[in-house]
């Protein structure tokens, strides 16, 4: 479906309250996914959307959701949220209080009417912050339900009631099963990053949660990739959906520059240091791919930096122009690279899937605020991060799945801004580059490695299993595909983040919430009943 000729937010049919919130955020015109999706969502239709993070997708479903809830609020008693402009500072204080287990809000007396499911904690936090930012003075209460937060505080907040739940499936599944909240009033549901949901094994729990909603509820289904498993799942959930596509996963924006360097595995972190030093010093983003990096001037300049002698006119402090995301394959390498850069006087922090939620939030906030110029991440931890003004993405390790390359690259050059992607490519990773080129239809020029100091002067990084790196793209996690391809999961998904005892968790996994009608009032109907 092509984008209609909609040039203003008012032409989308948005309410004055939402338009005021958009104006406060400084947005000037709708993005393609907003032009395509918003009118159909407001019309009450199910939507199957193909769009990456960073395309304005979140706003495309949050705006209509708030309008629908605000319209219902005129006839329904809702929790008064208070007035004022919800600034980023108040949002951060609110979130920090949640992470500490302190409920900073009052209560409402009804169950949620809207549900947004996200595959990761970071995505859920970002979407919840968007709801807070856009709601303005609307009498709408949103609750964030993710692992890593105080379970008892979440239970109390859910029992008091809210209008919107933004959640990861695992933690919400626990609360629904335990009777802390009912979804029988939910008429508006969003399944975001559906491909990622499948990869993480959330198919069964997500399906059961949606079945617990009002029969005939509106579903918005978004995915960055359109693999067969995603298509099958969409057909199962949606009723006569409108299909919209804006920047699917094989698409890279024209304002993004790509290049790569052939690098020995043991020298990757040293070459990374060269690139970041050049970026921070403002002399050159990096040597030109395919050029001659061995010229005397360049070599002297780089060697001077490696010895700690700055050949430039000063050191730049972290800013939007130097904000860099570095991707690695393992959490061990993420931690090692962050320490290596920090020891070299380039402030860096790492995020990976095994970190505590509080630590991950602090790392991301430090990167967003500019206190830290470089964030080192694994694919699991960084998927869906909404961080504005990332100028540079560096693939220290190439991903075995070319779709992951596009997800990584999508962190930069957002919404018309310039950005750059540099890949450090070892010999065994060249086929991965070719796979990316085949997917995107773009060429990644590979040049020789820049001149650098001896690798003996620096500690080596933890190794990546070359055989695993050179293998086929990863398989989906157990339970990560629909019943059409997986009849039975090899192992039930863990209830991560729950404070249940191990015995209770095992019992909860064995007992289907669909049959526990006292805890979860399930409405069954064909197709629309889910």
Strand order of the largest sheet: 3-4-2-5-6-1-7
Assign the CATH topology of the largest domain: Rossmann fold
Q: Give average pLDDT, whole number.
A: 77
Can you give the helix content as a percent range? 25-40%
**Count of helix runs:** 19
Any low-confidence stretches, pLDDT <50, length ≥5? 74-93, 95-108, 283-319, 467-530
Number of strands: 14
State the major sheet: 7 strands, parallel
Distance between the termini: 26 Å
- Within CATH, the superfamily of the largest domain carries the name P-loop containing nucleotide triphosphate hydrolases
Helix/strand/pairing category: alpha/beta
CATH architecture annotation of the largest domain: 3-Layer(aba) Sandwich
Strand content range:
5-15%
Radius of gyration: 24 Å
Overall form: globular
Supply the CATH class of the largest domain: Alpha Beta
Tally of distinct domains: 2
Task: Describe the structure in your own words.
The protein has 530 residues and is an alpha/beta fold. It folds into two domains: 10-249 and 510-515, Rossmann fold (3-Layer(aba) Sandwich); 256-464, P-loop containing nucleotide triphosphate hydrolases (Rossmann fold, 3-Layer(aba) Sandwich), CATH 3.40.50.300. 37% of the residues lie in helices and 12% in strands. The protein contains 19 helices and 14 strands. The protein has helices spanning 16-25, 32-42, 57-73, 88-99, 121-135, 151-160, 169-177, 194-199, 203-211, 228-237, 268-281, 296-306, 331-343, 357-369, 379-382, 402-409, 430-440, 466-469, 502-510; strands spanning 47-51, 114-117, 142-145, 164-167, 188-191, 218-223, 242-246, 256-262, 324-327, 348-351, 374-377, 392-395, 419-425, 446-448. The strands form two sheets. Strands 3-4-2-5-6-1-7 form a seven-stranded parallel beta sheet, sandwiched between helices. A seven-stranded parallel beta sheet has the order 10-11-9-12-13-8-14, sandwiched between helices. α2 runs parallel beside α3 (57-73). The longest helix has 17 residues, at 57-73. The protein starts with 15 loop residues before the first helix and ends in a 20-residue tail after the last helix. Mean pLDDT is 77; it is low at 74-93, 95-108, 283-319 and 467-530.
